[in-house]
Amino acid sequence: MDYNSATRLLKEHNQLHVLKFYDTLSKEEQNSLLSQIESLDFSIIESYNKHKSEESNIRPVSALQLNTIEQNKKQYEERGIKAIQAGDLALVLLAGGQGTRLGFDGPKGTLNVGRTKELYIFQLLIEHTLDVVEQSGTWIHFYIMTNDKNYDATASFFKEHNYFGYNPDYIHFFKQEMVPSVDYNGKIYLEAPGQICLSPNGNGGWFSSLCKAGYLQLLLDTNTKYINVFSVDNVLQRIADPVFLGAILTEGYASGGKVVKKAYPEEKVGVLCTNNGKPYIVEYYELSDEMRNELDENGDYAYNYGVTLNYIFPVDLLMKIMNTEMPLHIVEKAIPHIDEEGTFIKPDKPNGYKFETLALDMIAYMNTCLPFEVEREKEFAPIKNATGTDSIETAQALLIKNGYTL
Ligand code: UTP
Predict the structure, then answer these.
(1) In this structure, are residues 372 and 244 in contact, taking their beta carbons and an 8 Å threshold?
(2) Residues 6 or more apart from 391 whose CB is under 8 A from it?
(3) CB 187 within 8 A of CB 19
(4) I need a labelling partner for 212 at 20 to 30 A (CA). Which of 69, 128, 151, 387 fits?
(5) The dihedral formed by the CA atoms of 44, 336, 385 and 262, expressed in degrees to the nearest 10
(6) Which residues, in sequence order, are bridge partners of residue 200?
């Protein structure tokens, strides 16, 4: 693309400021900026003017609760272990986020939560998986999604630490795509005079990114039937949990999500339910007072189980929906950028929007989704913030409670 076409295109989309520093750039930087402009998807950034219109009809779904799971644990576990031994399960760790709330410099998984020794988030996730590898006597393919910016740091961290004892032949890194970030008026931010501000496109595109990276063939060659996809930040979650997989298979569900009992009805978590008969996660702000206080036949709150970003999805359905356009979410974030004078600014509070698709929206395309209850104190210790709720400190306290030495 040449300068004149770029000008025309940007003018058409009201983004001409992107060329503001063009004359100050070297020839190479100019060419780089022109090719960034050429590959911009304006439909994404313009979507923030559109609104969703589909009528919703949200209904609660009963979770498979702790007491039932305990009663059937042996049977579920045996079924899950058999499936793992047959090579049916692979794992996808979502580590492409930017962790802006935590404000840690580097991939979130490289954070050390130890106090007297090194204990990294990635290490904990690998160690949890090694428990199942040992129990089943089977290596499980472990895919790790990063973004463009943290790929090298993530891959070299694993290498430096000898993959924390995991078999490197079973660890596969891949990158997700990036999209531009905008200010509150929809104007694209620049990160440097010749660099458009790009951020990861959310965690919803993980399966298509996995396939674009060439791993569809490996999934097919290894006859993988299910994928357990999970976030990087919950340091206590059980991964490749045979009881969870076995419960989905035994109870005849297409997919499943690990949920925890809400601490109180107003807690700000998404709840697994149905919308127009399809699995759906209702966000806390979509729940009316009436729904929030609705009781089920046992007198418990009907919308009582929050999702934890740990799902099992069937590969055949994932392949079917691979090219489906997922709903786009507009998320307010703190976006480092240069101002009109070209000065670099790192804001400590939100200053614009990023565009993301979300893994949780995938469940709408599954025929059924089992809400599988896990004990909050034993399996839910997310690290989202530097201090306060869901912080390093709260996660450390829960790790200690569960017998870890920090
Ligand atoms: P979060 O919603 O917590 O987002 O991601 P984040 O970017 O990590 O953190 P904040 O909101 O900026 O503070 C939940 C999970 O999804 C992954 C994250 O790495 C985390 O495991 N994720 C998020 C991606 O893999 N890609 C993305 O584009 C966004």
Answers:
(1) yes
(2) 383, 384, 385
(3) no
(4) 128
(5) -20
(6) 178
Ligand 1 atom nearest residue 93's Cα: 21
Dihedrals φ, ψ of 27, to 5°? -55, -45
Residue the block writes with tokens 């959310």: 202
How many residues make up the chain in this entry?
406
CA of 309 from ligand 1 middle (Å) equals: 10
pLDDT > 60? residue 51: no
Give the pLDDT confidence of 91-121 residue by residue, as tens digits. Answer: 999 999 988 889 898 999 999 999 999 999 9
For 248: left if phi > 0, alpha if psi spans -120 to 50, otherwise beta; the answer is: alpha
Candidate from 203, 268, 309 with most ligand 1 atoms within 8 A of CB, to mutate: 203
**What are 351's two structure tokens?**
């200053």
Atom of ligand 1 nearest to the CA of 101: 13
Tell me if 7 sits within 8 A of 16, measured CB to CB: yes
